[in-house]
User: Fold these one by one.
Assistant:
Number 1:
Amino acid sequence: MEKILIYKYRNLRDLLLAFPVAQALRNGYPDAEITWATHARYESILECNTAIDSIQLLRKSRFLKFRSYTKKKYDLVLNLDGDFLSSLAIRRYQYNRSFTVYNAASIATLFSSKVVPDSSSTHVTDRYVDVARAAGGRMHAAEFPIQPLYEDINSIRSKLNGMGIIHNFVLLNPEAEYENDSWEMYRYLKLMQLLADRGIVCILVGKNTPYLEYFYNSLIDNKLLNVYSLAGKINLKQLVALVSLSNACIGMDGLLVHLAASMKVPAISIYSSTNPEVCCPYGQISRCLFDKRGVEFIPVEAIIDALDVIFTRIC
């Protein structure tokens, strides 16, 4: 039985975009023991990955060196970070073969074979899958092996029932990773009002930050009572469950919209700083609202038009 290690330590969003790598390896090595090595903070979302057998949690020690966390020998290691630190970490493993991403640091290529992506692989997920294919994985089009856990579905349904929410709700994370990607507050207020006019409930998600708290209080002050907040009140596994039950998700280039796309939930995303062809919610570029001049040039009505199409199909 082959023993395979997927190493992906950095960035929660990119970790999710790499999920199809595990499925490709499972397709190519049905009986393999597949382990995913990552930061301890990402353990919960990896518990929803149905293609892996175990999770190896990594913690840094002093001087940016990784502890010797394993002596197990692997037949195959995939370094999906390809940076300096991941190269130091990979060096500590025993393995027969190792592959890394096309844009890996020079030091990474000393320990792993760099995989040049296929010419048709524009999206970052497809480039990750190319690494898996080079290692013997099989996958025609990217499939995300993600499924909410039964107990989390029940927990979220209980929370929704407690708020009186039965159906027709969307999720929104108004925070942006980069300040110049932030929409002004009045645009969100207008969006919420148009949602209320259509009988659509909106639930805020994200970290419990002062901005989100101020945002939610502003909505209450404006008497937009169709808005609820679960920001900071659910963990990553529960977020997976919540997304799976929602009708659509709205947000900037962040975890929420990519999580929605991974489970084939409609994702309406707002882009300006990043190229949507490279990193839009996978398979949903038609719902990606992009204006290179800035997000302020993307009208609220564009989101409403996309939601009208979604809810027309649901009804």
Note: Residues 62-66 have pLDDT under 50 and may be disordered.
Number 2:
Amino acid sequence: MTITAGIDVGSTYTKAIVLNERNEVLGRGISQTGFKLNVVSERTYQTAMQDAGVSRDDVEYVIATGIGRHQAEFKDIHVTDLTATARGAAHLFPRTQTILDVGGQTMKASRIDESSKVLSFRLNDKCAAGTGAFLEKTAHYMGYATEEVGPLTLTSKEPVPISGVCAVFAESEVINHLSLGTSPAEIMQGAIESLVGRCVQLIRRVKAEPEYTLMGGILRFETMARSVREQLKSEVNVPDPEMVQYVGALGAAILGHRRLEKLREQGSSADAGTAQRAQT
């Protein structure tokens, strides 16, 4: 059995996946990233290997991605998160043409071709109002944990508009709505729809075409995908809740198998690829 791993060191969470040669998930691991990127990378990778029931020697190739990919010392090579998410999205939904990835600190939209090559991409402006951090901050301000956001928004009937163009102004709107007695559910859903508006703008800037595939921790909230569907007036793909945060790590692990195939075609070995990592 040929085993590879992908490690996605994101700004908020670090995720790892271990795959077999049929691209079946053997094990996973997830941790809050924090600021010791090399430590959290190693810990998350260890968790994924334990979950898979394999040892470090069993894993033939490791590819790192994400903002902290350079800090994963055990990697063989690294790739950009755009490359990894494109591969992961296309594996889960082969007809994907447009990808929206909403993370804790970043938001990215990209358009890919039939071979999963990135044709164009756009990143959000440097403002928390365009990321998942805004939703988490809004929830915490009202006394709710992040895990409670999904159930809370499902009770919303008339969301209030949150029109602030930056997190500071948006927070002022949240405070004002609370002072007027607006329910937390309506405020939370209003914050989600504000974020979705920014998502849709970003998607349109890459000349988006269906199928659309959405990913990132914020997509755990059912109303987020529903709002994107309504604003795009199109169906969208969303991975299963247990996979929605792992698409980048999945894509990296899949690319590991492709890299091994190329090395073998060249008469090389995974060890030779490891020795060349500094030139890759």
Note: The chain is about 40% helix and 20% strand.
Number 3:
Amino acid sequence: MRIVLLGPPGAGKGTQARRLSERYGLPVIGTGDIFRDHAARGTALGLAAKEYMDRGDYVPDHIAVNMVLERLDQPDTREGFILDGFPRTVAQAQALEGALAAGGRPLSAVLNFKIGDEVAVKRLTGRLVCPNCKRVYNLNFKRPRVEGICDVCGHRLEARSDDDEATIRRRLLVYRKETQPLVLYFWERGLLRDIDAEAPEEVVADRTIEALSDLLDLEA
């Protein structure tokens, strides 16, 4: 399966991507992680991307496309992948589909996780992330058993620098303006599957599996 995850910041895409990865053995291609890795290594693409990310803006198409397509060329994506955070514009979607078509591996589905803005703000302002295993916690909904420590690997949790309320609201505005056209784009192509993500993690996970059930039947 080759899956794209859509949804505003705070919709739980990263959490559901991890669950799908563990269930089906697919690598998660998280563009935020790719961008931050490039920035940490000081690559030219990474430093350019960081300027936009720090403002809550989207990374320009040409930078994002080059980073992601480079990652999709790696051997672990041969049997499929989960894209979290890409594409974010129609131009990026067209570049992605063109590259995948050239390799004979078209997209299988696009999952659209839907939540309201106020839910997103509440989730993100309390978010803590494990930089080691990528588990996500929340001070309002899903606290770690030991304050500040990951339940799974014991690493100290961190808050993302762009999870302050002003930046979150700006990211939501940018999402509605620039990414929402992707919903129509993928719907027209018969790939879109909507998922109500205003529910506990386990419920959303069940809805996600159900949304993919026809593809799993075909691959069985």
Note: The beta strands are 2-6, 28-30, 81-84, 109-114, 127-129, 136-138, 192-196.
Number 4:
Amino acid sequence: MKLNLLPPYVSKGKQSKVAIVLMLLILLASIAASLGMMFVSKQAYEREKARADALEKPANDVVALSKLADTITASAQTVVLNVELAKAMQEHCSAYPDFYDSVRRYIPAFFRVTSMSASPMDAETVTLTLSGVIKSQEEYANLMLALNRIPDVRSVSRSGFQLVETYVPNLTQTDQTGRPIRQGEQPLPDDPLDRLQALIARGSTASGGYLGVGNFGSGEPGLRGAMPDWSQITVTVVMPGKLQAPDVRATLANAARASSSTGTTGSMPTGMGGFGPPGGMGSFGPPGGLGMGGPAGLREED
């Protein structure tokens, strides 16, 4: 049996030398790699710096041009706004005629329209008011059905119809037959002579044969109203529509406040602040009593 009485590090001396040599080699390789990376990085930095220096002048020119464009835009903002407002108002001039044309197709022929007006409730809703004359209670009911055919109509209301059709009254002591009469008339008696006197008292004749109702027979040009036994009615329709005009005054005032708050200066052309739709565009009425939607036979001319 052989005993190894030497310390452990004595047998590993050779291995320690090899490890030291490898460590030195690795250290030298790391130093060389670091120097190489520093050299490559310096070359890349110098190359990119030269490129940035070459692009500095074009970039400064772009910034200066952008600032000049902002200055020109700020100074011309009021003019551009006025031009856009003028275009919007010019386009709005056809809004009312187009709206009336779209509604006219739903107005029945038996309703003689004397006036038509429209006013916007908001940006998407319009109140349409129709005034005209109508003859019978049946037409009064059919008018509601006709106007409810308007697409997406919200509501249709009416007023003004006067009941002029005949009805059979209750029997009285003098009238045991029940002859038809109209509203406001007294029953006719059964006695022929008394009935003749009642009819004579009921009748009346105006100058020239006209009753003077609805401005007929006046001999003067103008609007004609309801004929005898006809009724002047008013119909209100709430429906979709875009008739709201651009608010020119508010828009220009807001633009002026924005310009003063940002410090931009620019002259505002005079005369644009009061630009609005011509008067009378919201409604129209036919001249000389010429109605719309009714046949010629429904008008009595002088």
Note: Residues 95-203+210-261+283-297 form one domain.
